[in-house]
Amino acid sequence: MKSNQNIRSDQSWHIKNVRILDPFTGVDSAGDLYVEDGHFTDTKKSHMTVVDAHGLWAVPRLTDMHVHFREPGQEHKEDLLSGSRAAAAGGFTVVATMPNTVPVIDIPALVDWQIRRGQEIGLVDIWPIGAVTKGSRGQELAEMGMMQRAGAVGFSDDGQAVDQARLMRAALSYAATLGCPIVQHAEDRNLSQGSVMHEGEVSSRVGLPGVPGVAESGVVWRDVELSLLTGALLHIAHVSTIGSLDAVQYGKARGARVTAEATPHHLFLTDQAVADWKTHPVTKVNPPLRPESFRQALLEAVASGLVSVIASDHAPHHRDEKSAPYLDAPYGISGLETSLGTVLTALLHSGRMKPLDLLSRMTVGPHRVLMMDYPGVVAGARADLTLIDPHHRWAVDPTRFYSQGKNTPMAGVELTGRAVATMLRGAWTMRDGEVLG
Ligand code: DOR
Description:
TIM Barrel; ten-stranded mixed sheet; 15 helices
């Protein structure tokens, strides 16, 4: 990307010769974009700074609706500043943050604080997801209504499931009155207890305790039925099994308001990575990496639209914690800075999906789940934009991450496609891989 300017947020921009891919309006066309006062405009002005974006894509509102930013309480893993930088570096303009911080985000004051701190940093819009239950302890409902008024966009006890069916039913009913989703981390802990990877041929070979897919799909089936019963919006986080996909399909066929997301790591890697990494816990994630047949089913589900969202489940951890033996290390992969490249490599360059459809999973898909409006690239809309070089080949080097979490099994993997610039409210937050601010 070439331009003749230094960066100032009050500048106006003429982004030239770009392929505009706007899943919000369905537009896929070559042209120019104009940005002034933080918004798109139809009018070209002579004082606008010209950016030559030949060969690049312009995509509005790239959104990751599932990230862990660890502040408050675990800033040694990630804080809102390092997380925001990682988001801008990865091309994102919106992230939804999971509430499993210390303390858990379960009161309006914490929701409000996260939003304000995000605005102060100014690199990405932070949309907090509040806890379903107080302290995410699974015993009594948190004050969802008050958190929503403070700006929470949905509710989840992510990191663990809302186990009790009765409580889940109540949470769904309450959320239905608020018009926002319950995001379920589907895991039967009774079944998964002590497991660290998928149960199957590879777990037997490497000698680590595994969990069968039914620990996830059993909960998804139950919750799809509860969603039908309550009429509530249910979103299944990091879906990873064939049985879960069947449950989502079953629910949709019967009119349930159920949606699901897949992560880049489940779309790109299999449980074989656990063996390839010689059981270094960099591959330890929850839900675990699955066999190839599951991965193929997930790719198919994203392509067909059964899974309408791709989200990273960005889960940064400190190096010392991720150097522990496999059984003891925490679950999670640092994903914000590899998400787009992984997804483009797995689904676009493999020929499975067309660009507009694929990008909808990271834009309009999460907006619909979270019931958030955005008009797309039209005059007057906020200029939140990512310039993507779809053909850029690069090798993942975690030492260059802006995230404090360098924990990724994608290290050294060659990907094709990445964000080369990110704009939030008309100001560049990242240019040529460098985060500004
Ligand atoms: O691998 C995971 N890490 N899965 C989760 O659900 C939680 C996350 C975390 O918070 O580290």
